[in-house]
Write a structure and sequence with these properties.
Elements: H1 2-8, E1 15-18, E2 21-25, E3 36-39, H2 42-50, H3 57-79, E4 86-87, E5 91-92, H4 102-117, H5 124-139, H6 144-173, E6 182-185, H7 200-209, E7 215-219, H8 226-237, E8 242-245, H9 250-255, E9 261-264, E10 268-270, E11 275-278, H10 281-290, E12 295-298, E13 304-305, H11 322-325, E14 326-327, E15 330-331, E16 344-347, E17 354-357, E18 360-363, H12 367-374
Parallel strand pairs: 6-7, 6-9, 7-8, 9-12, 10-13, 12-17
Antiparallel strand pairs: 1-2, 2-3, 4-5, 10-11, 11-16, 14-15, 17-18
Helix pairs in contact: 2-3, 3-4, 3-5, 3-6, 4-5, 5-6, 6-7
Bound molecules: 5-S-methyl-1-O-phosphono-5-thio-D-ribulose.
Length: 375
């Protein structure tokens, strides 16, 4: 408990539900500005997810659950006296409103689900959270008030369980980090991408808390610089030694012998262990294998999609060409240039040394081992 209390101080307020609104730390403005945005509609939240104001597979999942709750909050407010109904910490206000029917609640939930499901296709946590919220609603009693309470409790549970899961990932993975190591990471799989502690970075944070001292190297992660803007920002907050590099310096860094482990997060891991993660991850895995450096993936169980047989079936998001042809309003390529801008790539399971999950570590992942852990 003491341990967790210490950690809570470092938890990043990535996403929350406060006094009837979703609150996010706007990641598009980091590291220059730390702005907490209050989001009052499902449409606004869908837009924030698309713009990567809230991003990272587990954080998108929590945001999606809160989006469904927000649709109910707004339905109730149409009948209420202007006050809020749901707050993660303060609880659930009196929602005995005679005008609200269970049918109306279910129809808002279904609309919200459709809108949120169309935001980003690759991170399976989004669909996992929407399915979990829908299942809770389907199993709930017919009474509208009870249904609303079930929805709120489910959304808060998704958020709170996620943080516990991240602590477990850290505990399960810290044994792979030793004093004096050089550890390379890609994109941001830290507190900003999750409920506040991280997946790949949870392993790093836990090892640091255990007193191990090592160096982290962060790929800048073109085109949107999650590594430079976000990973470096949060590692520095945790007091962890970090060095930033351009993505195209990774091969020379690994070849120089300064990297003892690569650790990344995941957006979707399928039955055979093939893993979708930020574009550039697959290349890193190949380089790591060429230089005999272990390559670890850290992810919660909600990132596994055992309905797909192999990575070839994972839908990969293609993003706007402007992310590549310009930077911060400055054009860096001729107008009209054809662009290839996938947000993710697929790392084949055979390049992964181990997948670190909250349920345990899967060394040399394959379908059989993943099936065992699926329960
Ligand atoms: O496009 P993003 O920034 O949402 O991509 C995020 C990643 O690829 C992360 O590595 C992944 O979601 C894991 S986050 C714990």
């Amino acid at each position: 408990v003491g341990d967790n209390a210490e950690r809570e101080k470092l938890i990043i307020p990535t996403v929350d539900f406060v006094e009837g609104a979703v609150r996010i730390l706007d990641q598009t403005l980091l590291p220059a500005d730390e702005v907490i945005r209050e989001i009052g509609s499902v449409g606004e939240l869908a837009d924030a997810i698309r713009r990567l104001a809230v991003r990272g597979a587990p954080a998108i999942g929590i945001a999606a659950a809160y989006g469904m709750l927000l649709s109910i909050e707004n339905l109730l407010r149409e009948q209420g006296d202007g006050g809020w109904f749901f707050d993660r910490k303060k609880g659930i206000a009196d929602i005995s409103l005679p005008e609200v029917s269970a049918g109306a609640v279910r129809s808002r939930l279904s609309e919200a689900r459709t809108e949120l499901a169309e935001t980003r296709p690759t991170a399976v946590n989004l669909f996992w959270a929407l399915d979990r919220m829908t299942a809770a609603a389907n199993e709930a009693p017919g009474d509208a008030v009870d249904l609303c309470r079930v929805i709120a409790r489910e959304a808060f549970a998704i958020h709170e369980e996620e943080l516990e899961i991240e602590f477990r990932i850290g505990e399960n993975g810290s044994r792979f980090i030793h004093d004096g190591m050089g550890v390379l990471t890609h994109c941001n799989a830290g507190g900003l991408a999750t409920a506040g502690y991280g997946t790949a970075l949870a392993v790093i944070y836990r090892a640091h808390e255990e007193g191990k001292r090592f160096s982290v190297f962060a790929d800048e992660t073109r085109p949107l610089l999650q590594g430079a803007r976000l990973t470096v920002w949060e590692l520095q907050k945790h007091g962890i030694d970090v060095t930033l590099l351009c993505d195209n310096a990774a091969a020379s860094l690994i070849a120089s012998g300064r990297i003892d482990a690569v650790i990344v997060g995941a957006d979707r891991i399928v039955s055979n262990g093939d893993t979708a993660n930020k574009i550039g991850t697959c290349g890193l895995a190949h380089i790591a294998r060429a230089f005999d450096v272990p390559f670890y993936v850290a992810a919660p169980w909600s990132t596994f999609d055992t309905t797909l047989a192999s990575g070839a079936e994972i839908p990969v998001e293609e993003r706007d060409p402007s992310e590549v042809t310009g930077f911060s309003h400055v054009e860096t390529a001729p107008r009209g240039t054809e662009v290839y801008n996938p947000a993710f790539d697929i790392t084949p399971a055979e390049l992964i040394t181990a997948i670190i999950t909250d349920r345990g570590v899967i060394e040399q992942p394959n379908s059989r081992k993943i099936k065992v852990l699926s329960g």
